[in-house]
Design a protein that fits this description.
Length: 339
Amino acid sequence: MQLFLAPMEGLLDFVLRDVLTRVGGADRCVSEFIRISGTLLPERVFLRYMPELENGSRTLAGVPVRAQLLGSDPVSMAENAARLAGMGPEGIDLNFGCPAKTVNRHGGGASMLQDPEAIARLVAAVRRAVPAHLPVSAKMRLGFHDTGLMRECAQAMTENGAQELVVHARTKSDGYRPPAYWELIPHIRTAIGLQVRLIANGEIWTVQDAWRCREQSGCTDLMLGRGSVADPGLALAIRASMAQGVPDAERVPAQLPPAVPWAQLLPHLQRFWDVVCIHLTPNQRAGRLKQWLNLLRRRYPEAELAYQQVRTLTDQAQISQWLLRSMENIASSACPVRF
């Protein structure tokens, strides 16, 4: 089993990739999408999205990062993929799953799932443009309005050079509303055969979800998105559960204690804030911390209190002081007073 961190625009960027891979459990990450819209991007743009390119395409914890491109023009995508390939990425991933209206309006992301022939041309162009040793993968949804073309789209990707396929088990119209339809993924497996690695994604928030997803999708490998952001120890917990060899999802508790307790997570929160303050503009910093705390509230009661305490703060110094006090409180509670 391999576990991957999903690409998530505006959320799972290089800052959070750094923190989550330090926590551990992920085998590989994928960058948020780099949008290609008809021009050849300079290297500095690729580095802005994926600074890991200057570290051998790995996070500082040593986890490989694959670069994701999003676009609809085969020529432009191929040219940019070739330039990116020269920067030494672990691989190149192609986005056929983004449901954003602004992306779909310009023919990219999930909108391409309406035209398998266009997908085939794009994937083939990228595959020809990059060295043979460089992996090319793709991420798709089950369809645009419905699932009628999911098999043809998957075949268009894998028959034209995509060596791995991640399936987010919802359509574009489904957005991010639960449930995820993991039970439809075996139809894609039948369409593409056994030679291509197939990875299931979508609505995996808990260890039980991971087991259910594996059973229903038939996939050994999983991609974790918001579930790992809300519970940074989720990949570790899944690995621990799998190591025990539990035979079916029904025997896994619906919710287990976090694999990374709040006291152990706080130093990672501190590092996240430090890196945000270095790399992001002042008007972005407070919002990024609140965004993460908001998701952490799903898993940690302590995060609810933390979110309420920083919700109205915008000043960097005030937030830094709050984090320092939180760290000191944890340290003092962990060290009993000696008389």
